[in-house]
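A protein record pairs a chain with a discrete description of its three-dimensional fold. The following entry can be read in just this way.
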Amino acid sequence: MTTTLLHNARLIDGTGSDPITDAVIVIDDGKITYAGTSADAPETPSAVRVDVGGNTVTPGFFDCHVHLSLPGTKGSPVMAAMVPESYRFFELIGRLKTTVEAGVTTVRDLMGVDVGVRDAVKHGLVEGPRLLVADKMFSQTGGHADFHIPSGLDGTGLIGGVIVDSVDEARKEARALLREGVDVLKVASSGGVTSPSDDPDWLGARTEIVAALVEEADAYGGRKVAAHAIGYAGIRAAVQGGVQSVEHGYALDDELRTEMVQRGQFLVPTLIETLKPDTATPQAVAKSTKWHALAHESIQASVEAGIKVAVGTDAGLVPDHGDTLAELGCLVKFGGMTPMQAIVAGTKTSAELCDVDDTLGTVEAGKLADLVVVKGDPLTDIDSLADKDNILLVLKEGKAVGNRGGYTL
């Protein structure tokens, strides 16, 4: 059994408890066996000792809304149509590596990569964060996943869209995806910013379709549904249809906020995508100004209402892969969270959303050793997390997957 001991650490364990100074974390075969004060640490004479230099140790972070198949600012989504499908798999390698080296050890990809990519990472064929995948996104004809364009070309399948116009169609397509082993279903219950034929104010998948997807996901092993929902009508359909998470949620009102709290639903506000115009399509540029401003105005009320807020970014669309931890600064700036609350959102709460909080999300004995060593103290400068040079060491199940600090393990 290999034992590793991190010491001379300041521990933020993800539970929201006060930091522990002079902390020790002991790792045995990929799991945490001790996390606490050095005074109470067990004797481990044979452990590999790693002095982290007084820097901060946090849980591995989550990004609950990414699109690894999309290039962010590094290219155009249109380029996917210009290369063989096999070429696009190789593009994922750098995106996966960049993400995990930035301290994000678990991501939920909500359209664009399938279970094969998830399993390739799981089996060690390619390095990256742990993946939970939706593969496809459901919408109705003319909805957010419908990328028919006036020339007659149809990019719906290319981007990962599935068109369903009835409850029965939704059930059949959901069952096929669930048979393939996806971890979550994704539905668009409102229009979108990027999509060419609708608007976020428009209602997407109706409540009865959302509810049918929720029923199917639950029937197939208790899986959950995430809903793209920006405008009010789409948010209402998502909430009342019973989804696990509302993605974006910019037009939430107090009544729906209260209902989300009562239902135990999560909000993934994707704030860093609102810091720049969406240039993925000409339609997106015009729509993004209005909706991005609303995102900044509404998030604090959602936080104050007590909605469970998890961290997600829409990385690959507007933000670049690896920029996830800038979202924590946005939760503080726009949402009114404390830095500690933002860290909990990106760790413990996100793990709860992804149904992996029994093994991830906090630094506690018995959990997997997904850990990040951060330069300095993010509680005094939450934006420091967004600087990748400050992410000194990333462990995923006890193994180094990023080591800018040059630690000897």
